[in-house]
UniProtKB/TrEMBL annotation:
GO terms for molecular function: guanyl-nucleotide exchange factor activity; zinc ion binding. This is FGD2 protein. It comes from Origma solitaria. Coiled coil: none annotated. PROSITE patterns: DH_2 (PS50010), PH_DOMAIN (PS50003). Keywords: Cytoplasm, Cytoskeleton, Metal-binding, Phosphoprotein, Repeat, Zinc, Zinc-finger. GO terms for biological process: cytoskeleton organization; filopodium assembly. Residues 5-193 form the DH domain. It comes from the Eukaryota. One of its GO terms (cellular component) is cytoskeleton. Its main location: cytoplasm. It is found in: Cytoplasm, Cytoskeleton. Residues 222-304 form the PH domain.
Amino acid sequence: MQEPEEKKIALELLETEQAYVNRLHLLDQIFYAELMKEAKTGKTVPEEVVKMIFSNISSIYQFHAKFFLPELQKRMEDWNHNPRIGDVIQKLAPFLKMYGEYVKNFDKAVELITAWSEKSPPFQELIADIQKRKVCANLTLQHHMLEPVQRIPRYELLLKDYVRKLPPQSPDRGDAEKALEMIFMVAKHSNAAIAEMERLQNLWVVYQRLGLEDDIVDPSNELIKEGPIQKISTRNNSTSEKYLFLFNNMLLYCVPKVIQVGAEFQVHLRMDVEGMKVRELKDTEFPHTFLVSGKQRTLELQAR
């Protein structure tokens, strides 16, 4: 008797979950625990750095090892009487939001491993030593750390497949479809978290280039465009190099600093976007010129 397709997929989910829990155990109970123990002796690397590298891996490990894997095992042992996994996955889905933090932190974690491996030979040696063990299967710490980042998309694929193969009258259909929708929302949440993180990161870099003028720094701002521009001086018919930052709510008119210590630009003028008008000029002597007029003042600018 051929096993039904949906059971095969449910078994694959269980098998990959078992392997995944082993991987999490390696990350949390071996890498994290041993690096932390060494950090406490004060010889390798600050404890804070180790915490930053591993983010919330301990919570993720506990959740999968103590809750999700045992629940799946129970379901599969009982499959012949009660062929369903949808309800368990619905219970799991809200907890997957924990991954947002881990995924957001991933690039930073990899950078920290690289930087501290160069700075601290004992730190590098300890990692190399753990990587030589059989449990690591000749793979690097970074490689193992990528696994949680890839886990939610994997759930999504397996569950999609499972729902597709379910017979129309299956008792699990309603639950499985709802579970798939929930997993889909979590995957979106984790991507949105990454995008938001990148936006804030980029914004922070711009603020640093502007010398962090306190009243400009606002995390809700969005940078739309930036670039060099020529300012036309009608008095002596000449142009000078300036730089513009256009945000959703203001235009910053800046002067590049000659001596770049700290900031790259000095903000000469802030113009509110509200009520701002832009008009093209037909000037034979200065092509590509336009006027920007706002509450604060009017600028005559020339683009490249």
